[in-house]
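Figure 6 in text form: structure in, sequence out.
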């Protein structure tokens, strides 16, 4: 009974905060509600016995992603009035795209169903890891059965990081950049030490 009450409490707060993320007028408030979503989702993972996923959600998303979003939003100083200019002009297009996505979701979930043998397939890989903890079992599955998918995801993140660096380091006219090679190649005589007599300074 207590676990059921805690589950519904976490789920209610999670859904309410998710709604506030997209409905809050202040972007800083949206990020704070997003952090609340992550904490409640971590609580649901703990109830499911997935403590490792709960800690990853808190450490990675709350400690890094959400805080980064918060700092970026606060530093950008977004002008909400200017951001809403021309919103009505794009509203019909957005409504059409939203209706198409909604229709696709309805078609997908209306035909959704579990295969009769899916339960056996889900439980079969975990039989060998019954004596391990949640973190050990997840590590064994991730680095043995899904190692190629894990490597591909790491490669995609590397490509995204390199692309971000290249976009940031593009040359702009009128902007002086640091050239480390020229600085290292300078001779030691660039700086000269002179003894200035007392009272002879500028």
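Output sequence:
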């Amino acid at each position: 009974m207590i676990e059921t009450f805690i589950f519904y409490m976490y789920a209610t707060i999670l859904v309410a905060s998710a709604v506030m993320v997209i409905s809050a007028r202040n972007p800083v408030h949206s990020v704070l509600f997003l952090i609340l979503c992550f904490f409640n989702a971590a609580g649901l993972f703990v109830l499911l016995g997935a403590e490792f996923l709960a800690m990853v959600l808190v450490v990675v998303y709350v400690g890094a992603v959400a805080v980064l979003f918060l700092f970026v939003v606060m530093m950008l100083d977004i002008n909400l009035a200017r951001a809403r200019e021309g919103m009505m002009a794009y509203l019909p297009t957005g409504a059409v795209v939203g209706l198409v996505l909604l229709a696709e979701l309805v078609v997908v979930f209306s035909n959704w169903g579990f295969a009769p043998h899916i339960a056996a397939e889900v439980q079969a890989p975990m039989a060998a890891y019954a004596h391990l903890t949640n973190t050990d079992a997840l590590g064994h599955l991730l680095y043995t059965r899904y190692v190629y998918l894990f490597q591909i995801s790491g490669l995609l993140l590397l490509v995204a990081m390199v692309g971000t660096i290249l976009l940031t380091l593009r040359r702009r006219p009128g902007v002086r950049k640091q050239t480390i090679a020229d600085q290292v190649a300078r001779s030691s005589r660039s700086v000269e030490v002179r003894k200035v007599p007392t009272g002879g300074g500028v």
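Caption detail: The two ends are 83 Å apart (CA to CA).
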